[in-house]
Amino acid sequence: MSGATLSLKVNRIVQEAEDIRSFELVDPDGRLLPMFTAGAHLDVELPNGVARQYSISSDPRDVDRYVVAVLREPESRGGSVYMHDNVGEGDTLTVHAPRNNFPLSDKATHHILLAGGIGVTPMMAMARDLSARGESFEMHYCTRAPAKTAFMGEIAASDFADRIRYHHDNGDPADGLDIEGLLRDVRAGAHVYYCGPAGFMRACENATSHWPVGTVHFEFFSVDESVDRGASEAFQIKIHSTGQVFDVPADRTIVEVLRANGLDVDTMCEEGICGTCATVLIDGAPDHRDFVLDDEEKERGEFIMVCCSRAKSPMLTLDL
Question: Where are the domains of the chain?
């Protein structure tokens, strides 16, 4: 696990929409919390042994609290159900200090925020930050219906309400936002950010395929099972500090081999969506299978997520 470990009190729980609750987390003694930037998330260790990542929706300038929103998903791995059914006001949660895999770009002159369902949580922090800085942005918020749309009251009362456009599809994506039409023309200086469920993410990816590298940013909150990762082949890893070389069989991950040889690497999700296990890559051609790095970062090849990614070359040299 990375980052300082905090014990935070659940100060307030709000039913934001159908099946969506927000949780306000504060220091029990009233101390200020570690600073964060818009797009950051918290790694939360739940009492049932499950660890989950939740984006922060509150204002980055407000460091006396963190607010996260959680969609209750009975079919998920258990984190959201536990948060809804077992976490109450006054409870204490173990939280790791904020990390940001989804930051706003300082190169953009206009920001296009695309939120699908619960994917609105990082976008709320972005909208608050961009508004406070006086930067140009628009946000398109896509949900099934108003009853399933979180933060509507907060948005209505905000100074950026006129930047938000709601799109309710009533269960038929064809009746929702025309993402392809919105992003057909590449706007000079504009950057696109998107977060939401798998189908929404695929639609946004397809609609931005012609945008310049480095202008499109995204964050997955679950693995897209439709992605074909291809066959897994065996390869080797070399530890830069010692020169040790280990075999990585086709049926084992890099992190499993590292741990089997006494090398500990922090992990959280072990599915390639949180970025905890990012490791500096010194040499070799990686086969990136994560949902964290964008196209520009993958091209640079500076990091590899050792929980899921593999190699295209016979060997990878890791900065360990």
Answer: 5-99, 110-219, 235-318
Instruction: Sort strands 315-318 and 278-283 into parallel, antiparallel or unpaired.
Output: antiparallel
Q: Which of 42, 101, 98, 33 is nearest to 70 (CA)?
A: 42
Coil/strand/helix, residue 161:
helix
Strands 137-143, 164-168: parallel, antiparallel or unpaired by DSSP?
Answer: parallel
CA–CA distances in Å: residue 134 to residues 95, 127, 128, 214: 31, 10, 10, 23
CB 320 within 8 A of CB 263: yes
Distance CA 85, CA 90 (A): 14
Q: Selecting from 2.60.120.10, 3.40.50.970, 3.40.50.80, 3.30.930.10, what CATH number does the domain 110-219 have?
A: 3.40.50.80
> pTM for this one?
0.83
Digit-coded pLDDT (tens) for 227-283: 656 778 999 999 999 999 999 999 999 999 999 999 988 887 777 788 888 999 999
For residues 199 and 180, give the distance between their C-alpha atoms in angstroms, rounded to a whole number.
Answer: 14
| CATH class of residue range 5-99 | mainly beta
State the CB neighbour count (10 A cutoff) for residue 232: 15
